[in-house]
């Protein structure tokens, strides 16, 4: 039997069965335990008609006909019986209930803050009142086309929250200007009205449709949503759809990653200077996982002509010997193939936002190999000779190059165009750029919380952010869109070094990161501080330094001060051998301070003032304090590009069976320090770093040649 809430069944509300007319009472039925009374109150005419079928959409003499009456209906004077003309008293059981929503446009309920039971009851009540109900939970013939709804009920109190909840449902609007007449709501099909659910409760209480004016939260005009490929606005996927989608992604990730990374035993690679050998014909990993290979690319006459001109090019050593690790080749800051590398970086970032670690490594390796290539790539077959570049990368290059052979600025890849235009990529990228927010958290903001802009994060999630994330959001534009010029980086480093030397004479410093690799502009400032006397690096010196910088106004916010703390583990102390500790257990970590910095000297060219107030941009500064026992590895670990540092660790493990990090080189198992990286008498920090690199059996490349992207 269909259930009706007592709030709808107004004719029998708040009355005991003894008060009802005799013909409405249920008979007493004797049971095995005793008599049981079944209290079933009679349905109102609206509810009764619903019990035998769908609610009727035909108007009754008691329905509200005027398109504006649902908004502006007011209580009429009481009639002779003491009742209002437009309502029926609960005690007047013979009169029909005048609670029809026929005049309303399509109605939907915003489920936020409503329990499943309350949502179910509200849907039934609205259906019984002849509302044209639109629901996101299709059942019993109800439609799920949320974009048809123009009237929304919900537990909403502010316009911003209303717009946010609509956006979560895929309904994009902009608030109409203040003063817009509410009477135009039903006359303009492009307007959306959000009303507090209390309005409906008042209608039930008064047994009739009440004015919505006191309950209107938001009136907005429909706008075009973010592009979705088909030009339609799209609602957020349901929880079940998200689970299915993520499961499918997990199943496909290895297949896609295998396609990114190559790994096929049967792939033929032509290596200049080496004879061709027959490929392995056993089943490849690609075939086992069903990864489709790129189709054979047709080589044009122009490609043959271009390749003729490459015959006399001397291939670099890493190509001739197929050296895949980035530590075996120089990587200049700029190369002839920067435009194509930028396209691959977009794909790599999309893999990062998908938490696809294998894909990230594959594209990082390909980017590094291309960055080191000294010639302009003119054909996909040439790209295939580079270690770490497989058929998929070659296919991407083929599409990119041939999209506009004569104009590099017009070249493009369709898949990359779609990535850059997708809402998911653009929004998660914006979240990912908040300092302190990683890819996983950016995905949670977008997929789980439904946020679509930085304003959403501030409005609805500020109290859920960590202090570091709040600071990163506060200075979002300054961190991401106001780069630090080289002279300012040098000034910041010099100021920190000067204060350190004032506190304890003898301190030296070196600026690392992108500045040392030759970048004209940096996103932040990384620097290593060291003293030849190890005792001078202890005793809370870094805390003393940051405190002094705060007192002088240079440091405005301290994001992190300590050892490790989730920002990477660098061990500097050797664990006691008598304890037999495994590698890293009980070891000390490099101490570091991560701060926000602001210029304070009005005489500085980097100082800016508006209205007598310092508006100089805030800068991110990382200060690493290293003892002399490992300063060489500290400088090395904080200088190279990401792929260089990754491959450095792989090389040390593969070649020597050791573990490398910025705090030193360690034997696996025993955890003992390898005597490498200590600051020797008479050498500077650069010489100390070079001795570490050569001690690991690697060729020394200047910092300007470690730009692996």
TrEMBL record:
<dbReference type="InterPro" id="IPR002054">
    <property type="entry name" value="DNA-dir_DNA_pol_X"/>
</dbReference>
<dbReference type="Pfam" id="PF14792">
    <property type="entry name" value="DNA_pol_B_palm"/>
</dbReference>
<dbReference type="InterPro" id="IPR027421">
    <property type="entry name" value="DNA_pol_lamdba_lyase_dom_sf"/>
</dbReference>
<keyword id="KW-0539">Nucleus</keyword>
<keyword id="KW-0548">Nucleotidyltransferase</keyword>
<feature type="domain" description="DNA-directed DNA polymerase X">
    <location>
        <begin position="335"/>
        <end position="707"/>
    </location>
</feature>
<dbReference type="InterPro" id="IPR018944">
    <property type="entry name" value="DNA_pol_lambd_fingers_domain"/>
</dbReference>
<dbReference type="Pfam" id="PF10391">
    <property type="entry name" value="DNA_pol_lambd_f"/>
</dbReference>
<feature type="region of interest" description="Disordered">
    <location>
        <begin position="1"/>
        <end position="94"/>
    </location>
</feature>
<keyword id="KW-0479">Metal-binding</keyword>
<dbReference type="GO" id="GO:0005634">
    <property type="term" value="C:nucleus"/>
</dbReference>
<dbReference type="GO" id="GO:0006303">
    <property type="term" value="P:double-strand break repair via nonhomologous end joining"/>
</dbReference>
<dbReference type="InterPro" id="IPR037160">
    <property type="entry name" value="DNA_Pol_thumb_sf"/>
</dbReference>
<dbReference type="GO" id="GO:0003677">
    <property type="term" value="F:DNA binding"/>
</dbReference>
<keyword id="KW-0234">DNA repair</keyword>
<keyword id="KW-0808">Transferase</keyword>
<dbReference type="InterPro" id="IPR002008">
    <property type="entry name" value="DNA_pol_X_beta-like"/>
</dbReference>
<dbReference type="InterPro" id="IPR028207">
    <property type="entry name" value="DNA_pol_B_palm_palm"/>
</dbReference>
<protein>
    <recommendedName>
        <fullName>DNA-directed DNA polymerase</fullName>
        <ecNumber>2.7.7.7</ecNumber>
    </recommendedName>
</protein>
<keyword id="KW-0239">DNA-directed DNA polymerase</keyword>
<dbReference type="InterPro" id="IPR029398">
    <property type="entry name" value="PolB_thumb"/>
</dbReference>
<dbReference type="InterPro" id="IPR010996">
    <property type="entry name" value="HHH_MUS81"/>
</dbReference>
<dbReference type="Pfam" id="PF14791">
    <property type="entry name" value="DNA_pol_B_thumb"/>
</dbReference>
<comment type="similarity">
    <text>Belongs to the DNA polymerase type-X family.</text>
</comment>
<dbReference type="GO" id="GO:0003887">
    <property type="term" value="F:DNA-directed DNA polymerase activity"/>
</dbReference>
<dbReference type="Pfam" id="PF14716">
    <property type="entry name" value="HHH_8"/>
</dbReference>
<dbReference type="InterPro" id="IPR022312">
    <property type="entry name" value="DNA_pol_X"/>
</dbReference>
<dbReference type="GO" id="GO:0046872">
    <property type="term" value="F:metal ion binding"/>
</dbReference>
<feature type="region of interest" description="Disordered">
    <location>
        <begin position="257"/>
        <end position="284"/>
    </location>
</feature>
<keyword id="KW-0227">DNA damage</keyword>
<feature type="compositionally biased region" description="Low complexity">
    <location>
        <begin position="43"/>
        <end position="73"/>
    </location>
</feature>
<dbReference type="InterPro" id="IPR043519">
    <property type="entry name" value="NT_sf"/>
</dbReference>
